[in-house]
């Protein structure tokens, strides 16, 4: 048994918040650069991608959030089963870190009551997903999730007969319907299988993978590839201005499902892919 | 790149064509979901708005708080479509320009033409760049809405694309 104090967890989440909101992931920056190089010089799409890349530099130089939507704080905590957590309640430690980080680093507080719309004023609560895994470490993933793109996400409960074609059609349809609204070029997280709820979580988890990475299962990687080609053929382009790149990548995660169903969740992420990880 | 001064004048608006890039300099108001709801509630009650809309340009945005030594925090555009149900009435009241991101409804497009107004697309996700282009910021209304409050900004060289022009030209329709 290894003991980890919540002070250490709190410190780590605080630091992850700072890093995550201030910079794009290196894989995202590389994909944006590639997208820009693929657009015609002087086109609106090239202008948009150039602005986005310049913005990423400005954010780092000026120590400012890369996007003002510093998101709904999504945190995945993979907790080794040989870890004993000491100190505060884990949820309190995480929320305390989020509260302090969003205040100290001047991040926007974007969480409100869904009915009264009154802002909680400190960006809590975070969406904390805990998972017990083998081992004696805690792996933390910090994903500040913007909602312009979250709003464009969809969940399909397909029949098994729809098969791979149904999955691909659902993913492409989601991006087509989103159009210019979610800040394309988007990153598309797809959950395949599980239940209504775990499928949506798989899609979210897929977004924590590096842009450009592939699922180790060959048949799943083939779906990622087919979806990406079909999405980019839509021609929506950066910011919806038309162009070659509508998605930077498609990441699929898969889990066994029921014999009666084929759930497919499509979670849209804008081009501002921000995600930081740490292991304690 | 074409330079446009705000508040907009009709001559400049009429000369804008969908697809061209522009640099905006001058004053704008910010306003997004909750501020629009408040504005509508006030109008429905027959109250006078704390800021006149005639001739104004509204920026659909909710900034990050300003760090020490800065006028404004990160402040890129939010998705305009969420303000579609509000825009035609505000355009009828004299609003001349909107800045946001993404396509608009048919009703908004028609209202832009009817009112000879314009819709600019700022580049979504470029929050740091736009925040730095804000040279002055003043809270105008609804402070309890925090980042969703209405601010008056003085902006300088704000890069945008003309998305929907006063004749109905539309970059999202290809």
Describe the structure.
The complex is a heterodimer of chains A (280) and B (174). With 280 residues, chain A is α/β, with parallel strands linked by helices. Chain A has 2 domains: 2-20 and 66-145; 148-275, 60s Ribosomal Protein L30, Chain: A, CATH 3.30.1330. Chain A has helices at residues 6-22, 26-37, 44-62, 90-104, 147-150, 163-178, 196-206, 218-232, and strands spanning 2-5, 72-80, 83-86, 127-133, 138-145, 154-158, 186-194, 247-257, 262-269, 276-279. In chain A, the strands form 3 sheets. Chain A has a 4-stranded mixed beta sheet with strand order 4-2-5-10. In chain A, α2 runs antiparallel to α3. The longest helix of chain A has 19 residues, at 44-62. Chain A is globular. The mean pLDDT of chain A is 97. Chain B has a single domain (2-164), classed as Fe-S hydro-lyase, tartrate dehydratase beta-type, catalytic domain (fumarase). Chain B contains 5 helices and 7 strands; from the N terminus they run βαβαβαβαβαββ. Chain B has a 5-stranded mixed beta barrel with strand order 2-3-4-5-7. In chain B, α4 links the parallel β4 and β5 (118-122). The interface between A and B is large, with 42 and 42 residues.
Rg of chain A over CA atoms, rounded to whole Å, is: 19 Å
User: Considering DSSP H and I runs of 4 or more, what fraction of the residues of chain A is helical?
Assistant: 25-40%
CATH superfamily of chain B: Fe-S hydro-lyase, tartrate dehydratase beta-type, catalytic domain
Number of strands of chain A: 10
Instruction: State mean pLDDT of chain A (0 to 100 scale).
Output: 97
Largest interface: A-B, 42 and 42 residues
User: How far is it from the N-terminal to the C-terminal residue of chain B, by CA?
Assistant: 23 Å
How many helices of chain A in DSSP terms?
Answer: 8
What fold name stands as the CATH topology of chain B?
fumarase
Strand content of chain A: 15-25%
The biggest beta sheet of chain B is recorded as: 5 strands, mixed, barrel
Number of separate domains of chain B:
1
| Main sheet makeup of chain A | 4 strands, mixed
Structural class of chain B: alpha/beta
Q: Gap between N and C termini of chain A, in Å? A: 14 Å
